[in-house]
Amino acid sequence: MNEAEKYKKATYHLWTFTASKMIAMLGSHVLSFGISLYILAMTGSAMNFATNMICSILPRALVAPIAGFVADNYSKKRTILLAQAGTVLTMGGLLLYTETVGMSVNAIYVTTVFYTLCSAFSGVTFSSAIATLVNPERLQRAMSFNQMSMSVAAIGGPVIGGMMYGFFSMEVFLIVHMVAYIIAFCLEATMDFKLYSKRQENVEKEKIWAGLASGFRYIKQQKVIKVVMWLSLWINLFFSAIVVGGTYIIIEILKMESTHFGFIQASGAIGMLVASLYFATQAEVKMPLRFSKISLLLLSGSLGLAVIPLVTNLSYITIFIFYIGLYFIFAIFEMGINMPLGVFMQKLISEEYRGRVFGLMETMAMSMMPIGMLVYGVLYDRLPATGILLVTSVIIVTITLVLLRPAVLKEAHPELEEPVMESVQS
């Protein structure tokens, strides 16, 4: 295949990949919304709702490194298609169970576990395959389109789910999810996951434990990758302060109506969509690690601003507008961290190790989420929210300055030293 044909195929991938992700994620958000309301309506228990959330996080965190190993050692296309087929069969199984026995919370838990396992394999494999689907010059655009599709699904899913919930049974939610994943399966079946691959075909496959061990060794040898992984771990831990605290402060302390809080959360999804459009239309960031450092510092500062309504006497409408703007800014800065880092990691990590590195990163990030939620849940019950947010903001700034210190930035971007060298030579 010549370069013109490859470029044309990559363009096809760009749109097909975006469409398949958007359709699948839209179906996923619609079902997630329906199941959440169903569990609360059926049991009235927050514990049952939390248990289902754990079932959607813990299995993925545990299996992500194995999914990464599979992505590195076996056909990416086959892995993704099998995972998507597994998702359809899982939902089909719950639909059949519901029709014959009736819906139950325990059946939902089991379904959520299997669905999460399937999504771990498809998600990690897709993450490791983006750089082989499109040419390097359009990698940032591909990742922006990916994020854009997720943002549209995050906005549209609850809206569609909310409209459906009052008129349709749970079985219809399951059918919508299955249809969405079948369409995604058909689109992904037409893609060439080896288009820009540089790996040799006849490489001997490693055994699973040896493969995981070699992945760890590779990470240990790459200082910059190690720094990014530690950074993602700490960020996911400490930004639980706003994940947990945002809802607690706005609903419990400031007594804002849940409908208005929904608009505040939607502003975050809109912010991600706007940032995705920006990165999709701009040239690739030249120094991504430095760009992400600046975005992270700005995000940390914005976290500190969240205390303003707590220490001032603002009107209800002013607080509402303030938090809409703040959540929008949060999303912009979050994309300013994730997008350049994602492109940078795609290019920095060797193709034969991408799956394992992304799998381990996902495990580290996702394992911190429940820990962070638990820690901050306890802290908000015992300490003033103002102090928690300000201290957390300072901690994140400190971690950023330590991990992304000038020496690390120079190792990641050697061009930072060029102006100095030129001045010395002159």
From TrEMBL:
<feature type="transmembrane region" description="Helical">
    <location>
        <begin position="109"/>
        <end position="136"/>
    </location>
</feature>
<feature type="transmembrane region" description="Helical">
    <location>
        <begin position="148"/>
        <end position="168"/>
    </location>
</feature>
<keyword id="KW-0813">Transport</keyword>
<feature type="transmembrane region" description="Helical">
    <location>
        <begin position="227"/>
        <end position="251"/>
    </location>
</feature>
<feature type="transmembrane region" description="Helical">
    <location>
        <begin position="317"/>
        <end position="337"/>
    </location>
</feature>
<keyword id="KW-1133">Transmembrane helix</keyword>
<keyword id="KW-0472">Membrane</keyword>
<protein>
    <submittedName>
        <fullName>DHA3 family macrolide efflux protein-like MFS transporter</fullName>
    </submittedName>
</protein>
<feature type="transmembrane region" description="Helical">
    <location>
        <begin position="357"/>
        <end position="379"/>
    </location>
</feature>
<feature type="transmembrane region" description="Helical">
    <location>
        <begin position="263"/>
        <end position="281"/>
    </location>
</feature>
<feature type="transmembrane region" description="Helical">
    <location>
        <begin position="385"/>
        <end position="404"/>
    </location>
</feature>
<keyword id="KW-1003">Cell membrane</keyword>
<dbReference type="InterPro" id="IPR036259">
    <property type="entry name" value="MFS_trans_sf"/>
</dbReference>
<feature type="transmembrane region" description="Helical">
    <location>
        <begin position="174"/>
        <end position="191"/>
    </location>
</feature>
<dbReference type="InterPro" id="IPR011701">
    <property type="entry name" value="MFS"/>
</dbReference>
<feature type="transmembrane region" description="Helical">
    <location>
        <begin position="293"/>
        <end position="311"/>
    </location>
</feature>
<feature type="transmembrane region" description="Helical">
    <location>
        <begin position="79"/>
        <end position="97"/>
    </location>
</feature>
<dbReference type="Pfam" id="PF07690">
    <property type="entry name" value="MFS_1"/>
</dbReference>
<keyword id="KW-0812">Transmembrane</keyword>
